[in-house]
Design brief:
Two copies of one chain form a homodimer. Chain A is of the alpha+beta class. Chain A is 57% helix and 10% strand. Chain A has helices at residues 14-20, 23-30, 41-48, 54-57, 59-76, 91-101, 106-119, 127-136, 142-146, 150-166, 187-197; strands at 4-9, 33-38, 173-176, 179-182.
Chain lengths: 198, 198
C-alpha cells in the first residue's frame, strides 16, 4: 500500500513557499503519494485567539522570520522577495488553486502563485494580480473564473475545517494518517514516517 | 580565527533539552568554539507580551509540542518524560548552571539538570530537587550554594538582557556574531554559518 502525505499550505505563508518547491520531488523520491491541500490560516488562527499573523503581533519574531527565510532561500538557491503586503489576503488565490485541482494542475498553479508572491515579491490578492501570476507561468486563466463556483468555495471551506479537526495550527503542515508535522523543517521526518508506515 | 557559536538556552524549554545533548559534539566536529549561555525566557516573553508559555496559551500548539518532542527523542534515542510541572520555574537551575561555568562544569551541570527534568521527568525547581539532579550525575553540590552569590545572579541577568538585545526571542537559540538562529532545527545551519565565517 502506498502511504500518503498530505501537504497543508496557506498562500500567505512564507514557509509554505519553501515546501511548495521541494515537497513533490521529495515525496516522489520516498515513494509516497502526495495530496495538496490549500487551506486558510485566518479561521485557524482565530480559533486559537490570534487576530493577526504572529509575525506581525510579535515584531521580533517577524523580523527573525524574514532573515530566516532569506538565509534558507539563499542556501537552497530559491529567489526570495518580500511582497508589498504581508500577510496577503489569500481567499481568491486558495480558491484558484482548488479550482485547478480538478484538472490535475494544482501543483503548477500553486507554484505559479508562490513564485509571483515570494520569488518576484508581488501581491496575489486581486483577479488581475492572480491572472498575471498564471500568465507568467503559461497557465490558463479559466481557474480564476472557476474560483467563484460553489463547489470550489465549499472545498476550500472543507479543507480549512479538516485542517483544524486533525490538529493543524500553522502552515505548512504535513499529515500522515493522524500524525501532524508542523513546518517545512519537519518535511523530511514526515516522509520518513510515511515510508516506515507503508 | 576560530569562530564562536553561542548556545542560548532556558531550563524550562523542551527543545533546549534536545540541543544540550548534541551541540557540544557538533560544534567540536565543525571546529567551532561553543559558549553556553543559560538565560530566562520569562522576561523575554514578558517583553513580547506573553504572560505564559505559548505552549500553554495555545493548547493545540502545546499538544503538538509534546508529540513532536516524543517523535524527535525516539529518532535520536534520547529518553523523554514530561515533568509534573510545565514550564518549570528555572531561576535556581539557571543560577546553578552559571555558578558551574566558573569551574568549567557548565556542560555537565546543564546536562544533569535537563536529564532530571526531561529524561527522568522530575521537577528541578527546589534546592532539594536540584541537589538530587547533581548527585545523580556525581556532580558536586557546592554550585547550589554558589547560586546565591551576587556575581552569579548578576551574570544570569546579563545573559537574559544580552539575549534580548541580540534579538533572541525563544529557546534554544544560537548566535554567530549578530546572526540569530532559533530552535534546535537551526543548529546545523548555525554551525555551517559559523564555519563559513571563520
Amino acid at each position: 500500500m502506498t502511504q500518503k502525505l498530505t501537504f497543508w499550505y496557506e498562500f500567505a505563508s512564507t514557509y509554505s513557499y519553501l515546501s511548495a518547491f521541494r515537497v513533490a520531488d521529495m515525496a516522489r523520491a520516498a515513494g509516497v503519494e502526495l495530496i495538496w491541500r490549500p487551506f486558510l490560516l485566518g479561521p485557524v488562527f482565530a480559533a486559537q485567539g490570534y487576530s493577526d499573523s504572529p509575525f506581525n503581533t510579535y515584531p521580533v519574531k517577524g523580523a527573525y522570520m524574514w532573515r530566516d527565510m532569506a538565509r534558507i532561500c539563499a542556501e537552497r538557491g530559491l529567489p526570495f522577495q518580500r511582497p508589498p503586503v504581508f500577510p496577503q489576503n489569500t481567499l481568491l488565490a486558495a480558491r484558484v488553486a482548488v479550482a485547478a485541482q480538478a484538472e490535475g494542475q494544482i501543483e503548477a498553479v500553486t507554484r505559479a502563485l508562490y513564485r509571483a508572491e515570494f520569488a518576484r515579491g508581488q501581491n496575489i490578492m486581486t483577479p488581475e494580480e492572480i491572472a498575471a501570476a498564471l500568465e507568467a507561468d503559461q497557465l490558463p486563466l479559466h481557474y480564476l473564473e472557476r474560483a467563484g463556483m460553489p463547489e470550489v468555495k465549499a472545498t476550500l471551506k472543507e479543507n480549512t475545517q479538516a485542517a483544524m479537526e486533525i490538529g493543524v495550527f500553522g502552515a505548512p503542515s504535513f499529515t500522515v494518517g493522524d500524525e501532524v508535522f508542523w513546518g517545512d523543517d519537519r518535511l523530511e521526518q514526515a516522509l520518513r514516517f510515511a515510508a516506515e508506515d507503508a
